[in-house]
Amino acid sequence: MDAAFVVEWLNLVLRWAHMIVGIAWIGASFYFIWLDNHLHPPLDPADAAKGIGGEVWAVHGGGFYTAKKFTLAPEKLPPELHWFKWEAYTTLITGFFLLCLVYYYGAEVALIDPSVMPLTKVEAIAIGLGFLVLGWLVYDGLCRSAFGEDDALLGGLLIIYCAVSAWALCHLFSGRGAYLHFGAMLGTIMVLNVYFVIIPGQRELVKAKEEGRTPDPKYGLMGRQRSVHNTYFTLPVLFTMISNHYAGLYGHPWNWVLLLLISASGALVRVWFVQRHKGNQNPLVLAAGLVMLAITAIVSLPRPEADIGPPASFAEVQPIFKERCQSCHATKPTQEGFAAPPKGVLLETPEEIRARAAMINQQVWVTRVMPPGNLTHITDAERRLIARWFKGGAQ
């Protein structure tokens, strides 16, 4: 069986599974944050006497629902408790295998860019894994230190660490690989928050109730802090998951700045939604998030081109497409690891090439993200010649 075919199907299955379990995790997380922020004092005085601190009524799917939250714990635990953890764990597992398949197995295509840093495959994989491990160790260390007692100070330190990480990743990997690893680092932190802090805290709460003692409040405080962080990491992580579609951002010379700006925009928008749940939303927070997004778009505007020379003819650029592009963008690719042309883009006939002229100019000349990792060793002179052909009307 053809290896490229197997890899393509593994990619499909893992990506689909990652999306499914990720939706389940984020959906549950968003719901419980909404739930906590919409609780009202119980309508029935008997409920308050039982230790219920808040409740919320809802209608959905043709039925009425009520959810109640105890101030601490019920007098007697039920025989079965539902734990929300496997959504997070399976998101990490499927995401890690997908990372290994796309960015480590295919490091030469998706992760390494010799023009950024001439890494070997082993070096690139080691650095990528190192960022995932170091990201958690630094984050967890800061949270458990004295800095973690001051949310504002801790938040400032985490922003600095994220900025340093984004800069470093974008100066080590291809833009596409850097963006994905930034998101993978935050996503790993989110899952390990669940595994090492949030779930153990809940287990301690259950254990204390079973043993008839008052639970240590530190577990609840730590769990709440990590849950808040997870909430604000969510939208930046979701952006990095789709960022490979936007070469204008990850292929930009200031790609690390754009990554931080759009991540800050997502975090601010999420802050506004959380405030909105509580009924005290500040429109300036939403405005700040949208302004950040607008600044990202402005910074990513293509720079004015210098004089690249006179227009070139198709006859001059056709050999470049044949030698540098058609090994991947062909009905039957000859480049190892490709079972089909990427994104279904064919560049075999003059008509196919001319129809994609704007896209080709953007990917080859403006952002320079194609060929990925410069697999086919296109030269700057050849890139410029393609730009001159596009400048002349791509005829």
From TrEMBL:
Protein's name in the database: Urate oxidase N-terminal domain-containing protein
Residue ranges of domain Urate oxidase N-terminal in the record: 5-299
Pfam family, one: Urate_ox_N
Keywords: Membrane, Transmembrane, Transmembrane helix
MF (Gene Ontology): electron transfer activity; heme binding
InterPro entries: Cyt_c-like_dom_sf, Urate_ox_N
Bilayer-crossing regions: 16-35, 86-105, 125-142, 154-174, 180-199, 254-272, 284-301
Domain of life: Bacteria
Organism whose genome encodes this protein: Reyranella soli
